[in-house]
Structures are given as structure tokens and as C-alpha cells.
């Protein structure tokens, strides 16, 4: 991966992380204030909505930090090592958690007349899409495992060749 690509990706990651901190520090408290004025019939939505949003942002932050660490490993040429699996596993777990949070949002919004049933269905579709991303990351983990195995084999064969020469 080229130096320009690494810098561009890190700039994007920093922007996203700064934006997520802004959401947690400014937008969630403002949303909490707005939700104080909810109709009493829908007051039960306030706490679950805020909790789901905060946990969703935390899941995104976890992914961003893990991607940063993986990019660092790529730049150093150490990504094809067992240490990379920890970060990929955490990313997978964060996406699964995010999918469950999106589904929990649908469950919270489903009863009553708070939102239209079609919107709840769309949110369930979004949960399915996020779970699909988790599965894609899982497939990429399998590819990383194959690459690590090939790298270990190549290193072993190179050592044997060095002994012969």
C-alpha cells in the first residue's frame, strides 16, 4: 500500500473519529433535550433510542481504531501475522453488535404508532445489511488466514533454500 493511500485513509479515519466524538459529545445531548419534549405516549422511547445511538457510535469507533491498527500493520509489512486476526475479529464483532443494535432499534420502534410499519421493515433491512458486512469481514478473515499460511510456508521454503545454497 502506497504512502499516499495510507495517509489518505488515515485522514478519513481521523475525520470519521472526530465526527463520531462530536456526535457523542454534542448531538446526543441535543437529541436528549429534544426527546424531553416527546408526547407522553412515546416517552418510553427516549432512553432506548439514546442508548442505541451511543452504543452504535461506540461500535463505529471500535471499527475505526481497528482499521487504523490494520493499516499500520500493512504499512510495516506485518499484516500477514497472527496479530492481525485480533483486529479483524474485533471488527467482525463490532459489526455484529451494530447489526443487533439496528435490529433493537426496529424492535423499540415497532410497537404502537410511533413510526410507520414500513419504516420498521426498512430498519430491519438495514440490520440485515450490516450483518452482511460482518459476514464479508468474516470471509476476508478467511482470506487473511490463507495468506498467513502461505507466508509461513514461503518463509519456511526460503529458509530451506538458503540452507541448500
Q: What is the strand and helix layout of this fold?
A:
Elements: H1 3-36, H2 46-76, H3 83-109, H4 117-164
Helix pairs in contact: 1-2, 2-3, 3-4
What report would you give on this structure?
By secondary structure, this protein is an all-alpha fold. Helix 1 (3-36) packs antiparallel against helix 2 and helix 3 runs antiparallel to helix 4 (117-164). It has helices spanning 3-36, 46-76, 83-109, 117-164. The chain contains four helices and no strands. 14% of the residues are buried. The two termini are 32 Å apart. It has one domain (3-164).
Compose a concise summary of this entry:
Helix content is 85%, strand content 0%. With 165 residues, it is mostly helical.
Number of strands: 0
Task: Estimate the mean pLDDT confidence.
Answer: 92
Estimate the helix proportion, in percent.
Answer: over 70%
Structural class, judged by helices and strands?
Answer: mainly alpha
Taking the sheet with the most strands, its summary is: none
Query: What's the number of structural domains?
Result: 1
Spans of at least 5 consecutive residues whose pLDDT stays below 50 are: none
Structural shape: elongated
First and last CA, distance: 32 Å
| CA radius of gyration | 21 Å
* SSE sequence, one letter per element: HHHH
Number of helices, where a helix is a run of at least 4 consecutive DSSP H or I residues: 4
